[in-house]
Each structure stands twice: as C-alpha cells, then as structure tokens.
TrEMBL record:
<keyword id="KW-0238">DNA-binding</keyword>
<comment type="similarity">
    <text>Belongs to the TACO1 family.</text>
</comment>
<keyword id="KW-0963">Cytoplasm</keyword>
<protein>
    <recommendedName>
        <fullName>Probable transcriptional regulatory protein A3D34_02325</fullName>
    </recommendedName>
</protein>
<keyword id="KW-0805">Transcription regulation</keyword>
<dbReference type="Pfam" id="PF20772">
    <property type="entry name" value="TACO1_YebC_N"/>
</dbReference>
<dbReference type="Pfam" id="PF01709">
    <property type="entry name" value="Transcrip_reg"/>
</dbReference>
<dbReference type="InterPro" id="IPR026564">
    <property type="entry name" value="Transcrip_reg_TACO1-like_dom3"/>
</dbReference>
<dbReference type="InterPro" id="IPR049083">
    <property type="entry name" value="TACO1_YebC_N"/>
</dbReference>
<dbReference type="InterPro" id="IPR002876">
    <property type="entry name" value="Transcrip_reg_TACO1-like"/>
</dbReference>
<dbReference type="GO" id="GO:0006355">
    <property type="term" value="P:regulation of DNA-templated transcription"/>
</dbReference>
<dbReference type="GO" id="GO:0005737">
    <property type="term" value="C:cytoplasm"/>
</dbReference>
<feature type="domain" description="TACO1/YebC-like N-terminal">
    <location>
        <begin position="5"/>
        <end position="76"/>
    </location>
</feature>
<dbReference type="InterPro" id="IPR048300">
    <property type="entry name" value="TACO1_YebC-like_2nd/3rd_dom"/>
</dbReference>
<dbReference type="GO" id="GO:0003677">
    <property type="term" value="F:DNA binding"/>
</dbReference>
<keyword id="KW-0804">Transcription</keyword>
<feature type="domain" description="TACO1/YebC-like second and third">
    <location>
        <begin position="82"/>
        <end position="237"/>
    </location>
</feature>
C-alpha cells in the first residue's frame, strides 16, 4: 500500500522558515474550517475536527489561528466560500494519482493542477479511471526509532491492523476506516507514540518505476504540494 499525503509530506518541515510555516498553517486552517462546516464545532462529536486540531497543534499552529478557522466554519467570521475537490491523474511511469484539496475556486485550481502535471510528464485522468485502484483505510504512522520494527509489526497484528507497510524508518498501520480511532487509542494506551493518524487512500497494488522516473515523481509531488489548495496526494508508487 502506498499513500503520499500532505501532512506526511510536511512532517519534515516542522522547523521550516516562516514562509513555509505560513503555507502549512493556511492549509491546516482550511481543513479545520471545512470540518466545522460539515459537522459543527464540537470536537466531541466531530472526529475530523478533533484530528485537524491535534495536527495543527503538533505543528505549533497558534491558538488564535485555530480559533479563527473554527469561527470561519461557524460563520462567526467572514471567510472564503470553500469547497472540497478531488482530481484523478497519471504521473511519470504511468503511476495513478489522486489529488485532494480545498479551494475557493475549483476551475482555477483545476487549471493550476493541469499546468503542474504538464510540467512533469503527468496528465489528468477521467473521473473513475484511477479511484478504483485505491481503498479507503485508516492510517496510523509510527516512528520505529524507539521500538524495534518487528515488535511494532506484532503489535499491529494484535490491535487488528488489516495491513502495514515499513518505509524510511516508519511503520504505517492500516485499519478499517471505522476502527481508526479505536486502534489509535489502544496504541496510545500501550505508550506507543503516534506520528500521525488519518483516513487515507491506500493503493490496492503498487507500481515499481525506474530511479529516474521516481525522481520526476518526487519533483511532481513537491510542486503539487506547493499549491495552496492541495491538501493530500495519493499514489500507487512503490516506495
């Protein structure tokens, strides 16, 4: 399984410069606002909002920024007319890509994504031509620095993981979407530090590409991630 999500991408930029932090905070604020619009400002009854706020705090997003994003969601403060968007595409080496975002202008964002894809040998795909290659999964990422990989894998099996994937000294544990919060709570009770948790799209099968193509794909991902509207990028690239 393979997923390339925005929050995982920016995980290495917690100590980024102010301009980069500003971009990250802006993206997180949009997630919070949309979550409030969808299911209200009560974190006890809004799992998406709770997760978004927890993630924002991990990146030291100022409290006033979080509160402002919530108020935009409730309508207490004026804000952009935001909507969630999802696009399907193909990248270098024929990899399948799903791009998710939050924007105040869908047509502008679509044009920007087409332009970025064109620069890196990618192209838009018809609706449904890529999505069938992915399953919705709960995803929990754990750093293997403090606990041996084998021990974490055994623990993943114990807590009912449907699958797991080891990469870059990280272990991604996959669950059924409805089991995400329960599994996360069990791991936390066992004093396992969770790097991130979210509902992700996981590829049913991974694609192997050449090193040269992998370099172009990485540059494509980075260019997409720079776009203010783009929140998550998923692919079936084998990492």
């Amino acid at each position: 399984m393979s997923g390339h999500s925005h929050f995982k991408t920016v995980a290495a930029t917690k100590n980024a410069n102010d301009a980069k932090k500003g971009k990250i905070f802006s993206k997180m604020a949009r997630v919070i606002t949309i979550a409030v619009k969808d299911k209200g400002p009560d974190v006890a009854n809004n799992i998406q909002l709770k997760a978004a706020i927890e993630k924002a705090k991990e990146f030291n997003m100022p409290k006033e920024n979080i509160e402002r994003a919530i108020k935009k969601g409730t309508g207490e403060l004026a804000g952009e007319n935001l909507e969630e968007v999802s696009f399907e595409a193909f990248g270098p080496g024929g990899i399948a890509i799903i791009i998710e975002g939050i924007t105040d202008n869908k047509n502008r964002t679509l044009g920007e994504i087409k332009g970025i894809l064109g620069q890196y040998e990618g192209k838009m795909a018809g609706e449904g031509s890529v999505r069938w290659m992915f399953d919705k999964k709960g995803s929990i990422s754990i750093h293997c620095q403090d606990t041996p990989k084998e021990e974490l894998e055994m623990l993943a099996i114990e807590v009912g993981a449907t699958d797991f994937n080891h990469h870059d000294n990280m272990l991604d544990i996959y669950t059924k979407p409805e089991d995400l919060e329960k599994t996360k709570k069990i791991l936390e009770e066992k004093n396992i530090k969770i790097e991130s948790s979210s509902l992700d799209l996981a590829a049913k099968e991974e694609v192997v590409v050449s090193d040269k193509e992998k370099e172009r794909i990485q540059k494509l991902f980075e260019a997409l991630d720079e776009n203010d509207a783009i929140q998550n990028i998923y692919s079936n690239l084998k990492t």
